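This part of the workshop introduces the protein records we will be handling. An example says more than a description, so a record of this kind follows:
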Amino acid sequence: MTGLVLKLGPHERVLINGAVIENGERRSRLAIMTPNANILRLRDAIHPEEVNTPVRRVCYIAQLVLTGDANPEEARMQLLRGIEQLSQVLTDYDSRTQLTLASRAVMEDLHYQALKALRSLLPREERLFAAGRA
């Protein structure tokens, strides 16, 4: 089977190409066969009041493209600029790898993949902020 497979818990919601879909009473799996579909698990969504760190800001821009609330062409420069700024701070190999993946995904209009790569940096950013407070 090709495509993205979503495993949904009971009553879990997902946004697919602008439509909110809610799962029923039981766990289920959905196979998304359309390439480059805009998909966002609502449990993973970053809410506007949570956009309070550099990585979260860049993630939020990618999320806005997925939800249809931002024009992909207009968001491209913001995303690439944000990724470049993050690369000046997150200089370790793993972070650079994720930032490179995110950058390539943005250039190819694969915003789900860009968001996925950027979200992987959230725990690292959290650790850096925690270490700075200590």
Notes: The mean pLDDT is 92. The CA atoms of residues 95 and 124 lie 8 Å apart.
